[in-house]
Amino acid sequence: MKKLLLLFIAFLLVSTSFAQHFFDTDFNTRKKYIILCDPTVYRIKTIQYLTNANLLSVKKNKVNFVGVYYKGQKYDFSETQKYIDENNLDNFFLHEIDGELTPENIYTENDITDDLQKVFANSIGVIFFGGPDIQPELYGEENTESVVTDPGRHLYECSFMFHLLGGSQNDSFEPFLDERPDYTVTGFCLGMQTMNVGTGGTLIQDIPSEIYAADTPEATVAVGRTNMHRNYWQLIEEDKLFMGNSMHTIQLTDNLFWGKDVKVAKNSTPRIYSSHHQAIEKLGKGLLVTCLSPDNKIIEGVKHDTYPHVFSVQFHPEVMALYEDMGLKIFHPDDEPKSYHDILSKSDLRFHESYWNHISEAFNKTKKPKKH
Fold first, then answer.
1. pLDDT of the residue at 371
2. For the purposes of burial, counting CB atoms within 10 Å of the CB of 174, is it exposed (0-12), middle (13-18) or buried (19 or more)?
3. pLDDT digits over 13-60, tens only?
4. What is the DSSP track for 226-244?
5. pLDDT at 36
6. Which is nearest to 176 in space by CA: 250, 124, 220, 211?
7. Which DSSP state fits 335?
């Protein structure tokens, strides 16, 4: 009995300590590692889907994924470790970041700088995913319309982004990418907002009220579906088929990101999956606008003016249901139920596939870190 107890304790130590501090172990340095921020079970499933569908096209025998999270986040990442273990995923790992983070120290060297440097030095790029509102104090504003549910996550991710790219908050700080400019940094929705805030930009805290003077769901739906970035009909009427998001078009700017970097027609107006109520206001240091909403009022994509593999979008190209039928939805009460996949045209789908091709190329072109 005592032997079984000792074995059980040893197992717990391995599963909770070893696996969650990956870059402190004797890991395989011959592999390439892509960092996943906020590595929830859903994120792992998303990356599995994208790689299996060859949308995120990386060499599975050479590339592994490491979920890097902050100890102060709300999510229980032992659930992620459990999912990895139960499904025998030998290409997914976890690494926990720990240290004191405050709004006053995230845009400078701090308790997590050394650990972030270790993560950066052993990886080829990072993906920042969607999520809840960033606390406005991180971009110098009072909270007027933000709903902040996971402040620890934002302290960590904004600090990580600042360490990678630098920002106007602290011009004397030397960003990590000055050492390796080809490193890939990309994000979706909150990921783009984090890129903006981390580099010194600000956010519109609520699009309907600040941009359209719409303070109620009824006033918001009156601005039209093309100007809604999530679905407010679900707050007015009850129907289990209502999607929580919007499927609106975007327009591409004159920036060569779309057209040259991502091989799509410059005159295209692709339909995308949108789910947010906040957006970029003042651009962060080094960021350029690549696409806009149909009315030009909301920034839908940015890229960095110096680092070639740094770019992000406000929409969600990672949603699995875009690429195959996964249930019927409606946006407006009078809509005919359709799947997200069916809502997209063939050209819309090609747009998304081309974007994933560019993301894949960026990761594949990023050189493996040199051994020190």
1. 65
2. exposed
3. 444 443 489 999 999 999 999 999 999 999 999 999 999 999 999 987
4. GG-SS--GGGTS--TTB-S
5. 98
6. 124
7. P
pLDDT tens, position by position, 54-105: 999 998 789 999 999 999 999 999 999 999 999 999 999 999 999 999 999 9
**Residue type for position 88:** N
Contact at 8 Å (CB) between 197 and 139? yes
Q: What is the pTM of this model?
A: 0.93
Does residue 7 surpass a pLDDT of 80?
no
Strands (E), the chain: 32-37, 63-70, 92-97, 125-128, 184-188, 203-204, 246-249, 251-252, 271-274, 279-280, 287-292, 299-304, 310-313
Which pair of tokens denotes residue 326? 């996964």
Q: What domains are there in the chain, each with its CATH number? A: 2-365 (3.40.50.880)
Give dist(CA 360, CA 21) in Å, integer. Answer: 26
Angle (nearest 5°) at CA 316 between 311 and 320: 125
How far is CA 71 from its chain centroid?
19
Residue type, 152: G
CA distance 236 to 155: 34
Query: In the predicted model, what is the mean pLDDT of residues 217-238?
Result: 96
Task: Give the 3-state secondary structure of residue 96.
Answer: strand
328 Cβ neighbours under 8 A, 6+ residues apart: 241, 337, 338, 339
Question: Using the 8-state DSSP alphabet, how is residue 24 labeled?
Answer: G
11/326: higher pLDDT: 326
* Token reading at 187: 């994000």
Contact criterion met (CB below 8 Å) for 271 and 344: yes
Q: At what angle do helices 151-165 and 190-198 cross, to 10 degrees?
A: 60
Span 266-289, pLDDT tens digits: 999 999 999 999 999 999 999 999
Nearest to 243 by CA among 132, 329, 171: 329
Tokens standing for 227? 């100007």
CB 302 within 8 A of CB 289: yes
